[in-house]
């Protein structure tokens, strides 16, 4: 309910306060202040998490840049060792999970940029319009050849450097080749041998925000169903929809960890665990999407005043706890037995809710609980066919139409999947 603003002069309001009256603006100001405090804490938490996630990469990049500079300047005698540290940092930071490919792209891009820059300088000389022409030709030729975006950018950047530095720096081409190769090679050396990150720790940190988000919004949905609170469930839906960054971070971390386990002898013993994590990424993404449908249909259920039997929110709570258990058991390297058991408990409660009688949207919620639980079972390492069999067993069987009350002692039958939307 909106609160009317007190339009009296400030002196009158202060007098009223001294006389024991209530300032009607106070509650609204306090609420806004608390919201700002909450956002500030959340923002600080997110930033600190990002710093922790990027801390290892930052140290690797610093070490690689320093080594590339030292080798190029002191050992190879390059008086201006600019390109080597740039190549090292570019290899580490630009394509996490594809660093070997990034090194190759750097060298290919440098070759194209040098060739185009030198040719056009020889034919046209140097100047502003020549620089613009060189960059345009470098980009168009690399795109025509089907090169990646990284090669296109590198070719254009190298062409710019050749045109702008060639008049003052002689014999720039060979050192540029050497530095590109040197920087990329040192970056791979730092990643694989000198300072390899713990791949499981990287993945655990990346997975935590995505799984925490999913569990929290499932719990909020269960609470909203119990209270018939549409606003709470709608808010959970909006928060879950903003999960692209969390999933992208998880996918990138998995690729980077797989690369580390492939290149670094010190991390070879982690390959099996990383394979398990990599195989879990897709079903976790599917669980997110199915949970989104579950929450969206929970909103419709409240709007259409359909029944929400008590086991329904209980099932969603069990699903949320399964996500948390999966996160914990992955982090400590345990077989996720508890997560599997909780997923099946969610399905069993969903069966009880279905047997108690649900409407159309309620049947979709039940179906999505089953589907999300199946996704979590697959993420835990169970084959899809076996997960489906476990879901059917946990749900039970029933012979009545949707919405018809169950007979005493009757067990539920899985609903045929209604349209999702």
UniProtKB/TrEMBL annotation:
One of its GO terms (cellular component) is membrane. It comes from the Bacteria. The chain crosses the membrane at residues 51-70, 82-100, 107-125, 137-165, 177-197. Its main location: membrane. Residues 394-421 are annotated as: Disordered. This is Uncharacterized membrane protein YgaE, UPF0421/DUF939 family. Residues 411-421 have a biased composition (Pro residues). It is found in: Membrane. Residues 67-190 form the Integral membrane bound transporter domain. Residues 226-260 form a coiled coil. Keywords: Coiled coil, Membrane, Transmembrane, Transmembrane helix. The keyword DNA-binding does not apply. The keyword Transmembrane helix applies. It is a multi-pass membrane protein. Pfam families: FUSC_2.
């Amino acid at each position: 309910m909106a609160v009317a603003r007190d339009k009296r002069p400030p002196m009158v309001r202060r007098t009223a306060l001294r006389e024991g009256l209530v300032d009607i603006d106070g509650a609204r100001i306090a609420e806004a202040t608390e919201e700002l405090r909450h956002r500030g804490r959340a923002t600080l938490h997110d930033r600190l998490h990002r710093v922790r996630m990027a801390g290892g990469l930052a140290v690797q990049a610093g070490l690689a840049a320093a080594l590339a500079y030292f080798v190029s300047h002191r050992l190879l005698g390059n008086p201006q060792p600019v390109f080597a540290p740039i190549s090292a940092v570019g290899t580490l930071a630009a394509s996490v999970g594809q660093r070997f490919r990034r090194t190759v792209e750097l060298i290919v891009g440098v070759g194209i940029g040098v060739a185009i820059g030198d040719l056009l300088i020889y034919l046209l000389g140097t100047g502003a319009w020549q620089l613009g022409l060189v960059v345009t030709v470098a980009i168009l030729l690399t795109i025509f050849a089907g090169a990646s975006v990284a090669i296109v950018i590198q070719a254009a950047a190298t062409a710019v450097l050749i045109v702008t530095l060639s008049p003052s720096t002689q014999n720039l081409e060979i050192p540029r080749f050497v530095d590109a190769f040197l920087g990329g090679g040192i970056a791979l050396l730092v990643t694989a041998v000198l300072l390899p990150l713990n791949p499981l720790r990287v993945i655990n940190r990346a997975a935590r925000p995505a799984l925490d988000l999913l569990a929290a919004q499932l719990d909020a949905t269960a609470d909203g169903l119990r209270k018939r609170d549409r606003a709470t469930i709608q808010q959970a839906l909006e928060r879950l929809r903003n999960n692209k960054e969390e999933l992208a971070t998880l996918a990138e971390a998995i690729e980077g960890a797989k690369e580390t386990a492939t290149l670094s002898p010190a991390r070879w013993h982690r390959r099996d665990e990383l394979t398990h994590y990599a195989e879990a990424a897709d079903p976790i993404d599917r669980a997110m999407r199915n949970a989104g449908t579950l929450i969206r249909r929970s909103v419709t259920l409240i709007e259409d005043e359909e029944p929400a039997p008590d086991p329904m929110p209980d099932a969603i709570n069990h699903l949320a706890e399964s996500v948390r258990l999966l996160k914990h058991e992955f982090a400590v390297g345990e077989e996720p037995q508890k997560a599997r058991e909780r997923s099946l408990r969610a399905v069993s409660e969903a069966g009880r809710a279905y047997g108690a009688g649900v409407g159309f949207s309620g049947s979709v919620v039940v179906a999505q609980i089953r589907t999300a639980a199946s996704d979590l079972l697959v993420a835990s390492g169970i084959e899809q066919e076996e997960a489906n069999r476990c879901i059917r067993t946990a749900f039970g069987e029933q012979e009545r139409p949707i919405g018809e009350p169950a007979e005493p002692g009757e067990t539920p039958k899985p609903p045929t999947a209604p349209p999702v939307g």
